[in-house]
Amino acid sequence: MRNLVTPLLLAILVPALVSPVLAAHDDDPKILDRVAPYPGPGWKAASMSQAGGTNQPAIGFDSNNVTLLSWISVADFGAQFQDANDCWGYTSPSGREYAIIGLSDATAWVEITDPSNAQIIEIRSGPNSMWRDIKVYGAYAYAVSEGGSGIQIFNMTNIDSGSVTLANTVTSGGTSATHNVAINTDSGYLYRCGGGSEGLRIYSLSNPTNPTYVASWSTRYVHDVQVVTYTSGQWAGREVAFACSGYNGGWSQTGLDILDVTNKSNIQSLDHTFYSNAAYSHQGWLSEDRQYFYLGDELDENGTLPTTTHVIDVSNLSNANAVGTFTNGNGAIGHNMYTKDGLIYQANYTSGLRVFDTSSSATSPTEIAHFDTWASGDPDSFNGLWSCYPYFDSGVVIGSDIEKGLFVWWVGGSPLTYVFPAGIPDTINPAGETVPVLISEGTPGDLVLGSEKLFYDAGSGWTEVPLSSIGSGQYNIDFPALPCGSTVSWYLSADSQSGMSWTEPAGAPANSHSSIAAVGSSTSFDDDMESNQGWNVGASGDSATTGIWTRVNPVGTAAQPEDDHTPSGTRCWVTGQGSAGGSVGANDVDGGKTTLTTPTLDLSSSSDPLISYWRWYSNDAGSAPNEDVFRVDISNNGGSSWSSVEVVGPSGSGTSGGWIEHQFKVSDFVAPTASVQMRFIAEDAGSGSIVEAGVDDFSVTDVVCADCNGNGVPDDVDISLGISQDCNANAIPDECDIADGTSGDANGNGIPDECDCATTNYCTSFPNSSGNSASMGSSGLADVSLNNFDLTVSGAAANQFSLFFYGPSQTTILFGDGILCITGGIHRLSPPQMLDGSGAATRTLDFTQPPASSGPGTIAPGSSWNFQCWFRDPSFGAAGYNLSDGLNVTFCP
C-alpha cells in the first residue's frame, strides 16, 4: 500500500496513533481514509420472506446477479468496534457453516448455515489494529494482526454448541506483528507474512494448538502469499509459495516471488517476476489449474488507471511471465481475490464484490456479477470491501467491509425459478381464482418440498397460504374471495436445500406483485411516453438548476436509466439528459426541485379507477447519499390542492434505480372527478448528491365488478350489506347461483340446495367378506316435501340380509364385527332387504310412512338424523354380522 504521509505529517500524526506499527506501515493511506463505521443495524432476508417481514436494507446497494442474504453491521457486533477487516470460513463436521471476520480488536464467528438469518455466535478479543488476518486448519482458526500478539489460536471444536475458545497464543519467530497469514492445509504448515519488515515465518501445525517455528525466508518483504503442494507434473510432491513481495517493505522491485519451500531449511527461489505499472504487489491467487496467478497491485489504481488485475503465466515455475491484465473499467482499488469453479471473486474496496468468469478466457475474463457495498461512487480510496470468501459447499459467498461489517451473498441466478404459464394476472376474480405456476429447479432436488407458499395482503396484513402441488413442478396459487375493486399485493416463496428462501418477485415483500379483484377492466388512458400527450414541466417553487424533467431516449448513467420501460418503446421522462459516456452526475438534479405534471384526467364517469405508472429513482450516490426523496401526489381539483400518493426514500427500497411499478385506487386518496392530475417531484435538497428520476408507462384503468342480479350494486357489496346472501361463500349472491344453474333450489325457497340440506359420511366401517368396507350413500334430495330421498349402501357382503336404521346422535361402539355409529334411540326401516351380488342395496325413505312420518322417529324439515346399515356376514368374523359407516343427513328447511 502507498505511503502518502509526508515526514512533516508523520510528525504530527504519530503521537496521536494508538499503535506504533500503523505509522510505519505501508497501509498508512487506510488510516487517512478512515470514516466512522455505519451506525445502524444490518439486515436479514429471513425477515422479509415471511408474512409481515421488514423491507429492504436501510442502505440501497447497487448489484447485478448477486442476492444479499444477510448483513451483520459493525454496530451489530458491538458499539466498541470501529471497523472490520479480513474474513474466512469454517464448516463444522456436522456441515454447519460459519463466517469468521476480523474486527478492530477482536475476531468474531457468525453462523450462516441459514444464510438468510445469520447469527453471531462468538466474539474473542485481540490486539487493537485495523489489520487482522485469519485462516483455518482443521478445527482451529489462526488470527494475526499488525497490532502484535503473534498468532492467536482459537478452538472451534464446540462451535456447534456456541463456544469458541482461545487455545493458545504463539509469539515465537521474531516480531509479534504480522500482516497476513497463510496455511497450506495439505502440508500442515502455517506462513506468517510481513509484520515490520519480515518476509515469511514458517510454523509446523503438527500440534495445531502449539505451532512450532521451523524456518524463515527474509530475502524480501512478503505482503501476502499462497502456498500449495503440487500433486502432478514436474513439481509433483513439491510445496511452492507464490509471494507478493518486494524490497524495502515491498516498495522496491515489487512483484511475485515463486519459492520452493519443500525443504524449510533450504528454501529455493524459483523466479521473481515483474509486471507493468508495478506500484505495490499486494495479493493474488492461482487459477484452479495452476497455470496462471492473478495478482492485484494495491497502488496502481491512482485515479487514472482503472481497477487492474495482472495475469502471470506460472505454468513454468522457473520462468513465469506477465501475459496481460484485465479490468472492469471503474476506478476502485483492487484488494483481495480468490478463485473457485472457473470464477474469480474480488473484493475491490469502493466497488465491492466483483466476480469474473474465466470460462471463455483465463487471461481476459468477463465480469458477470457485482455487489457494491460503498454507495458513494468508486473512488481510489481505502474504504469499502476488504475481502471475500467463496469456498462454502453451500455456494454461499461472504464478504467483509471495513465500515459496514459482514455480508452474506448468493452469486448467480436463483436455483429456483418461477414461470407463469398463463401470465401474471392483472385482475383476480373476486370470487377467488386459481393461477398456475411452474417452479423449476436449477439442479434436481434443489427445492425443499412443502416450502412453496403464497403470501398475500389485501389490506389487512400478510397472510400465508401453501401452494397446491399438482405434480411435475406444477402448482396452483389459490387466491381467496376478495372484495371487488380491492388491490391485493402478493408474492411467492420457496426454500432451496442451501437454506435460502427465494421469492417471486425477487426482494419480496418490499417488491411484490399487485393485482385487482375484478372480473375485468377497461383502460381509459394509456401513455407510453413515445409522444407528448399533454404533460407539463415546471411548477411554482421549482428551483432546480439542472436535471429538469425532459422526455427523451435516455443515454443513461450509473444513476439514470439507459432504456425506457416500454418493451417496444424508446422514450420516457427523466430528470435531465447528459451526454453519452458522461459522468454519473452529468445533468442530474441540482439546486432544488423539478416537477412533472400529468394532463388533466376526466375520471368522473369511472366507477373505480386504478392508476398505474413505472418509476425510476436513484439517490444513493454522491457526497450526501440517501438524503433526498421522490414525491408523487394526486389532485382532483386541477391542482388547487394535493394529496400524497407515495414518498420514495430517503433510503431503503426503490432508491438505487431500477424500473418499479406502482398502482393504486384513486378513491383511496381522492374522489374521482373530471379534474384529476398527478405530479412527480424530484429534488436535491441540502448537501449535494446524485439524484435521478424517471417516469414511464402511465395508465388509468377502470375496474369492472360483477353485478349478476342487475341491481346496480356490485355483488360483493350486495353480500357485505346483506342485500343478498352467499350461503356457500363463493362470493356470488345465492339468487345468481340458482339462476345460472350453479346451485339447485328444489323447494323454490330461494336457498341453494347445498345450504338447505346436506349429507356427510362419518364413522368407520371394518372390512367384510367382500373384501371391502361398506359405505352409506344417498340419491335424490333430502327434502321432506319432495319425498324422493333414497338411502344406499355399497361394499357390503353379497347376497345377505340387511337392515337400514337411524337415530338422532352419533357414537362409535364396537358391535359385532363392525362399529355402531348411532345412539340416542334407534329406528328401524323395516322390512330387511337382500343385498345384491355386489353387496349393494337401496332403501327409499318414505316420509309419509312410519317411523319417518310420526312418533319419536319423525323426520321434520330442517332436522338432522344419522343413518347406518346392518347386514349378515356369516362367513367372515366371529359375530357373523357387520355394519356400514354412518351417514349424517340435514334435511331441507
Give an overview of the whole structure.
The chain is mostly beta strands. It has five domains: 12-50 and 64-411, Methylamine Dehydrogenase, Chain H; 416-518, Immunoglobulin-like (Sandwich); 527-704, Jelly Rolls (Sandwich), CATH 2.60.120.200; 715-755, no CATH class; 757-890, Immunoglobulin-like, CATH 2.60.40. 4% of the residues lie in helices and 41% in strands. The strands form 14 sheets. Strands 32, 34, 35, 38, 39 and 40 form a six-stranded mixed beta sheet that branches. The longest helix is centred in the N-terminal third of the chain and has 7 residues, at 7-13. The termini are far apart. Mean pLDDT is 90; it is low at 1-26 and 49-54.
Whole-number tally of structural domains: 5
CATH homologous superfamily label of the largest domain: YVTN repeat-like/Quinoprotein amine dehydrogenase
- Compute the separation of the termini in Å: 90 Å
- Give the radius of gyration: 37 Å
Provide a compact summary of the structure.
With 893 residues, the chain is mainly β. The strands form 14 sheets. Strands 32, 34, 35, 38, 39 and 40 form a six-stranded mixed beta sheet that branches. Strands 41, 43, 44, 46, 49 and 51 form a six-stranded antiparallel beta sheet that branches. Strands 52, 55, 58, 60, 61 and 62 form a six-stranded antiparallel beta sheet that branches. Residues 1-26 and 49-54 have low confidence and may be disordered.
Notable characteristics:
single chain, six-stranded mixed sheet, six-stranded antiparallel sheet, Immunoglobulin-like, 893 residues, Methylamine Dehydrogenase, Chain H
